[in-house]
Amino acid sequence: MNARTDVPRAESCASAGRSNDVPDVIDIAVIGTSFAGLGMAIRLKQHGIDAFLVFEKAGSIGGTRRDNHYRGCACDVRSHLYSFSFAPNPDWSRMYSPQPEIRADLERCTDRLGVRPHMRFNHALSRAAFDMPPACGTWRWPTNAATVRAP
Questions:
Q1: Is the pTM of this model over 0.90?
Q2: How far is residue 62's CA from residue 60's CA, in Å, rounded to a whole number?
Q3: Angle at 83 between CA 44 and CA 126, to 5 degrees
Q4: Domain definitions of the chain by residue range
Q5: I need a surface site. Which of 87, 111, 140, 151 has the fewest CB within 10 A?
Q6: Pick from 137, 129, 130, 78: which is nearest to 102 by CA?
Q7: Which residues have a Cβ under 8 Å from the Cβ of 16 and sit 6 or more positions away?
Q8: pLDDT tens for residues 86-133?
Q9: Can you name one GO molecular function term for this protein (predicted)?
């Protein structure tokens, strides 16, 4: 028995009354594109899971590494510890890297590890709702741009 293929998908229920502004039915939703969200997306991809989306309210990746850009902004731990263990960066310029370099490393990982196609930018998640059976038993994630469903 394969848990990935034996789980019923939501297409049959979601397609009933589904409008054109609902682009995707997915298995997994990841919220945010900072280290946690990006790390989850990368691990899903590495495990052969492709039915996922990463929602980001802003127009680019990075979370606080994108939003905090004041003079002198840098990490407070050594740079080699401030990166993914499975995607080390041997080229840090300093022991405590500045914000632009950290953000560039996140961008590099996003592209090198192939998760950018799964990202939905400018999608601010407004809530998550579960439609109890018999009304489908699916999750709905309305964003400002679309509503996405998952079994």
A1: no
A2: 7
A3: 55
A4: 24-150
A5: 111
A6: 78
A7: none
A8: 899 999 999 999 999 999 999 999 999 999 999 999 999 888 888 877
A9: cyclohexanone monooxygenase activity
